Amino acid sequence: MMTVLTLGELSLADLQAQVQLESRGFGDYDWLKVEDVALSDRDRLQLQVLQERLLTTRTQLLNEATTWARVIYPLLLLAEQGAIQAWSEVALSAQYAHFSLEGIADGVLGPSIDGYLQQPYLVVVEAKKGLDASNPQFQLYGQMLAAAWMNWRSSGLGTSGDVWLLYNFG
Questions:
Q1: What confidence score (pLDDT) does residue 165 get?
Q2: pTM for the complete prediction?
Q3: 29 and 162 in contact (C-beta within 8 Å)?
Q4: Rounded distance, CA 71 to CA 107, Å?
Q5: Is the dihedral of CA 118, 140, 91, 69 positive or negative?
Q6: How far apart are alpha carbons 107 and 80 in whole angstroms?
């Protein structure tokens, strides 16, 4: 019987029962050595508006939907280029040999063909707030596995993320 793992409920034990986890820490990756990013006047203005909004908002008091609407999704929209589009509430699933993964990604950036998302390039995981919040790290690992599987299925090349950053807006 195949084990079905739900992304939003993953634990370290769930993952370790299926895959070998390895942590290499942070590296000095070439893509992190960006000295200057050329922004259009329009993008610069949108970033300025977002920044001003954040400076006057107590983001730790906002609920999840409001945070997404005011901050996270507008940032994802700024990353859109050509066929790469921002998406929210995206279903992810993967069928590995001995287990499957299913769940919803809070947000993704990925190529679109006629309004249909292809494999995700960037997956956004929201870290929940509060006393009952769970560690988002294992959900992130599960989403990385699902995205790698989707990329492999789409391109025939297995890929996975090297560096994943979590940022808490609260």
A1: 38
A2: 0.70
A3: yes
A4: 12
A5: negative
A6: 13
